[in-house]
Write a structure and sequence with these properties.
single chain, alpha+beta, Alpha-Beta Plaits, 2 domains, 4-stranded antiparallel sheet, two-stranded antiparallel sheet, 4 helices, 8 strands, elongated
Length: about 130
């Protein structure tokens, strides 16, 4: 698993090439998971795929470019006690972060999760929840 972050930039400081520049300077890979733009700021959620030193360098570069960076912990929670093994989450997951075992129990690999929210929005018993950021 990489390091998941949120980077917040004031709209006046942000330019489309900021992430690309940080990737090139730090030698990392960055997977953008979500971008929100408002009149006042740009908020980017993503995952740095690199060792700890390179990930920290990526974060330092974003900060030097005017970003406020927050490292994220666990983003999703699965409650196996609520799960009825209906398979809806499994069938809707685009990255196969949700695995159906041979005994039809469900297992989550949140390292593969891209926060598409299909499982959260469609689970009939709310066994999966988004913890926020």
């Amino acid at each position: 698993m990489g390091k998941r972050i949120i980077a917040l930039f004031p709209s006046k400081e942000y330019r489309d090439s900021i992430i690309q520049e940080a990737v090139l300077k730090s030698g990392t890979i960055f997977n953008t998971l979500k971008v929100e733009t408002t009149p006042t700021h740009v908020r980017i959620m993503g995952e740095i795929k690199a060792n700890e030193d390179k990930a920290q360098e990526f974060i330092r570069i974003l900060k030097r470019m005017g970003g406020i960076v927050k490292e994220l912990g666990a983003m999703m929670k699965f409650d196996p006690e609520k799960c009825v093994s209906c398979g809806l989450c499994f069938s809707l997951c685009p990255t196969k972060a949700i695995i159906c075992n041979k005994d039809f129990s469900i297992r989550y690999d949140f390292d593969e999760c891209i926060l598409c929210m299909n499982c959260v929005n469609n689970c009939p018993v709310n066994a999966v929840s988004y913890l926020g950021d």
